Amino acid sequence: MKISKEFTTLEKSAVKLTVTVAKDDVNEAYKSILEKYTKNAQIPGFRKGHVPANVLERKFGDTLNAEAMSEVIDKSLNEIFENETENRPLPYNQPVMDTMPAFDREKDFVYSVTYDTFPKVSVKDFSGITIKEPQVSITDKDMENELKEIQERNAVVMDKKDDEKLENGDIVTINYSELDESDKEIDGSKREGFVFTVGTGQNIYKIDDEILGMKKNDTKIITKTYNSDDADKDLAGKTKKISVTITAIKIRQLPALDDDLAQDVNEKFKTLEDLKNDIKRNMETAKNRRIAELKSQSLLEQLVEKNPFEIPDSMLQAELNGRWHLMAQQFQTTPEQLEKLIESSGQTKEKMLADWTGNSEKMLKSRIIVETLMKDKNISVTPEEIEKRYEQIAEEGGITVEDVKKHYADARSKEYLVDDAKEQKLYEEIYKEVKVSKGDKMSFEDLFKNAQ
Question: What is the sign of the dihedral through the CA atoms of 190, 196, 202 and 208?
């Protein structure tokens, strides 16, 4: 097929493709369609396969032209995109024809389509970029916090004696109801068997302090006035009278920090020291990964700012729809049911997608810059580098290299590992071109605040 093409760049990485197909190819397509009809048409007065072409053209002229035009468009676009690398349409954005072209078999056929392409961005200038690396040390206090969490997870819950008073940290079960000025129960306010941990504030009336010192089966009428700026609008500035009865008090019996606890956590640990060493290694790994993540985030944010470009609406919409479907999977429901669920809580899908837009745009631009730089710098990894990556993962996880290889045995997991290794290699190359300096000192806990 003899084709000429012209690309016109539009806004947001869209292009207009104007195609001209030689009239000989147009006629060839028309003849092919006509022959197909001639062989298969069934018209009264004629045997199948013997309908004269001129009869078919009189009866089905518009249909023949439409099919021939569709054939020419499809064939020419397929031929163009098969060999096109710079101006291929995004997979989720099909070319659109704005106006129906004229189809005249006596002339070359000209038509135009518009579609979105992968954004083109040139990242050449790394001057002025400064990466500050947080300075984090793992302290004895951090280790104590980790061990305390392990104790909490392995705690045994036991009933407190009936004559023992309620204290902060106890797990309490209460019956409660709201009272009016005459100490009569307000309809609909009664609830039985409500359980919460004292001191967490995870109860409607926030009565943790008011019930301290009570015992099982005690009943108390609490009158509480709430601040006008209370976060709960139903309580703000109001005075409530609540009747509370304690029906059960339980305590968490924390296990001792000893070898037995270590063995209960995992049979691979023989002593408490083994457990501590494993915790320390895991914390070091988590620290290093988080610092690397913060460094790459800072780098990409600055690159996006220094190299402004727009992303296609179709790309952003595909990203938002992907996030919506992922959220539905997390809720173990369908996207349609998720929308109804969201609406029942007073939210809407449109509002949520709008709230996600800014973050999604930044993420997409960062991803585009990474892919562009990997292509420009011809980043690749060797089998030897992947072997070293296996060894690193094994060391960080305290497992064998063989176990790591089993984890990445399937094609998708291996591809993910290779892509990650290439991306990390890219960052290391760029860090040589920008200024990397020591950042502020930071605690291990603060390092992970606001982590997504």
Answer: positive
Q: Distance between CA atoms of 203 and 198, rounded to whole angstroms? A: 9
Q: Are strands 156-159 and 130-136 parallel, antiparallel or unpaired?
A: unpaired
Contact 13, 311 (CB under 8 A): yes
Amino acid at 226: Y
Q: Which of 166, 173, 171 is nearest to 212 (CA)?
A: 166
Residue 236 · residue 230 · CB < 8 Å? yes
- Distance between CA 414 and CA 436 in Å, rounded? 31
Give the distance from CA 41 to its chain's centroid. Answer: 54
Rounded CA separation 336/300 (Å): 35
Show pLDDT as tens, one digit a residue, over the chain (452 residues): 899 999 999 999 999 999 999 999 999 998 888 888 777 776 776 767 666 777 777 777 888 889 899 999 999 999 999 988 889 999 988 899 988 898 888 899 999 999 999 999 988 888 889 999 999 999 999 999 999 999 999 999 999 999 999 999 999 999 999 999 999 999 999 999 999 999 998 898 999 999 999 999 999 999 999 999 988 888 999 999 999 999 999 998 999 999 999 999 999 999 999 999 999 999 999 999 999 999 999 999 999 999 999 999 999 999 999 999 999 999 899 999 999 888 887 889 999 999 999 999 999 999 999 999 999 999 999 999 999 999 999 998 889 999 999 999 999 999 999 999 999 999 999 999 999 999 999 999 999 987 65
Is there a contact between 447 and 290 (Cβ–Cβ < 8 Å)?
yes
Distance CA 130, CA 437 (A): 7
Q: How far apart are CA 218 and CA 211, in angstroms?
A: 10
Rounded Cα gap, residues 206 and 404, in angstroms: 48
- 284: its two tokens: 């070091």
33: exposed, middle or buried (C-beta count within 10 Å: 0-12, 13-18, 19+)?
Answer: buried
